[in-house]
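Hi Y.,

Following your request, here is the sequence exactly as I used it, all 354 residues.
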Amino acid sequence: MASAAILMALECRAQTSNLKSDEQVVFYPACGWQSKDGKWWHVEIHGCVYEFEGRGLALALLRKGLGLGDVEMTMAQRAVFAERVRLFMVDNQRGKQVVIRLGPQAQVLNSTGPNGHYTATLRLSLEEVHELKVSAGGTFEFEAIMPPGDGRQFKGLIRFYPPEGWFVISDIDDTIKITEVNDSSATMRNTFLEPFRPVPGMVELYREWERAKAGFFYVSASPWQLYLPLSEFVRSNGFPDGNFQMKVFRLKDGSMTSILEDPEKYKPGVIEPILKRFPNRRFVLVGDSGERDPEIYAALARKYPQQVARILIRNVTRQNAGAPRYEKTFGGLPRSLWEVFEDPAAAKQIRGLN
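Below is the corresponding structure, written out as tokens. Let me know if you'd prefer a different format.
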């Protein structure tokens, strides 16, 4: 009897997350997709485990590292700054194992790495997904299984996407949110001191695509530490819900000034897996001319011509579609594939998915 009790206790312990009372979990929106033979669902779970550290000195150092040390902040700006940088000042927890509940099943995820992040791709049968009672919108909410006596709740969301349909893959900075990436000082102020502001007309355009049953991926070279305020910006301004792809970053690996660096090396590596997972879907790629979105999207269109249906570039550099940059970038691609626009409401040719 004693041996059975010990085994039961060990099994129970193995099926709970090994988190301390001061350690936090965040789940980023998860994506579910079907296998090529249609017999399985794959679900990629991604998140982070951390605990908060002292704030005083770290806050001052971060402010200086961002080039904001000499900026006279208002009370409102101080509050925004403290909120935006709080996840840069955490102690990322290595070797933690998060266990989640999917219906009656407990799923043990991969242990966290040095940066506190974990990823796991689960394989579920059609029957297992059916038993989850996924919502009519294709979503399912799950939660972490906590140790006995720990009543905290950490919840995440899976979006199950059917194999066919439309996806909008959208940049964030200067595409749907005013950031002014061509001005480093303005970028830092708009990222860390000011309320996020939507680009006029983009909510209405995205809502129209949502009514046409498009799914959304928001892809940004910003670090995951900014996920919570960016996801709140998307929600509070009425943009469609969607999945996020952002950059893994920690201060030990680079300086604060590198957190919004050129995304050309980063973005293709996160967009291509989406294209590969959904070979029968068509994609609208939306970005801006401030950095390298045109070049990144053009390269993807050449590699995946059957999937990339439209490329839409918001003009923030005052170069129209006839500029040498676009002639070179989109050379050889159909002119109907790409468009440079300033006012979404006036660009009727980019409305509607057909």
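DSSP finds ten helices and 15 strands in the chain.

Thanks again,
Q.
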